[in-house]
Amino acid sequence: MEETVLKAEPRMEFGSRSARRLRRKGHIPANIYGHKQENVLVSIDAKDFSRCLEAGHRIVTLSLGSKSERSVVKEVQYDAFGTTPIHADFTRIRSDEKIQVEVPVEPIGVPKGVSGGGVLIFPVQELLVSGLPDDIPERYQVNIESLEIGNILRLKDLTPPPKCTFVGDPEMVIISIAQKREETPVAAPVEAQPAQPEVIGKKKEETEEGEEPEAKKKEKEKEKDKDKEKEK
Predict the structure, then answer these.
(1) Would you say residue 199 has pLDDT above 80?
(2) Which of 2, 128, 166, 223 counts the highest number of beta carbons within 10 A?
(3) 172: Cβ–Cβ under 8 A, 6 or more apart, which residues?
(4) In a 10 Å sphere around its CB, with 0-12 CB exposed, 13-18 middle and 19+ buried, how is residue 192 labelled?
């Protein structure tokens, strides 16, 4: 792994206000610890550190005055947007001591499955590698040209870098090629039909125009029957 030198300056002030002042000046607070030595509080140039991370460098030498601290980037805190580093922790390392480092995965080539209409799924973009500092690569390259739709590349399918081992679940999916989903056509909105007026049945006393109500007919018949009885 290529090593980068970052200039560090002693940090004499602490707390959130001090950290904000450092960031306004283009620096971020950082800590150096490990190997049973005293923790050292420093500040480093924010742009230099961001370039270091973007290039995939994880092992760095921190130049602090006349002293140099060879270390590995242990933890990075980012802003609310997850894009800008605002704090860093470094762990001291020795050349004869194994360490674990997150190494970026770099896919090589265009998979056959993607050329055939599939979709590349790349859920794990860094692998945890264990080895001596000088044996850990800056990035891990993997050729994916032969992958077809339905193929899955797991951690156990990969060959570790020379003199190194992978740390993690062997069944962990690193890269896969999936069938592209067909978009379901959106149905045209159905126009709302005007509400139909409710049909109410005729009341018993209601009739069509010119028609005599049934109740009145019965009353007249009863009166006729009474008149006949009187005549008798």
Answers:
(1) no
(2) 166
(3) 124, 154, 155
(4) exposed
- CA distance to 38, 108, 136, 144, per residue, from 127 (Å): 30, 16, 11, 16
Q: Which residues of 204-218 are buried (b: 16+ CB within 10 A; e: fewer)?
A: eeeeeeeeeeeeeee
Query: Residue 34: how many CB atoms within 10 A of its CB?
Result: 16
Q: What angle do CA 182, 188, 191 make, to 5 degrees?
A: 160
Residues 6+ apart with CB under 8 A from 55: 4, 138
Centre a 10 Å sphere on the Cβ of residue 119 and count the other Cβ atoms it contains: 14
pTM here? 0.69
Residue 111, pLDDT above cutoff 80: yes
103: β partners: 127
Chain-centroid distance of CA 101 in Å reads: 22
Sign of CA dihedral 54, 55, 60, 65: negative
3-state secondary structure of 99: strand
pLDDT in tens, 20-39: 899 999 999 999 999 889 99
The pLDDT value recorded for residue 223 is: 65
Reading phi first (left if > 0) and then psi (alpha if -120 to 50, else beta), residue 48 is in: alpha
What is the per-residue pLDDT for 51? 92
pLDDT at residue 40 is higher than 50: yes
Distance (Å) of CA 140 to CA 36, 128, 151:
31, 10, 20
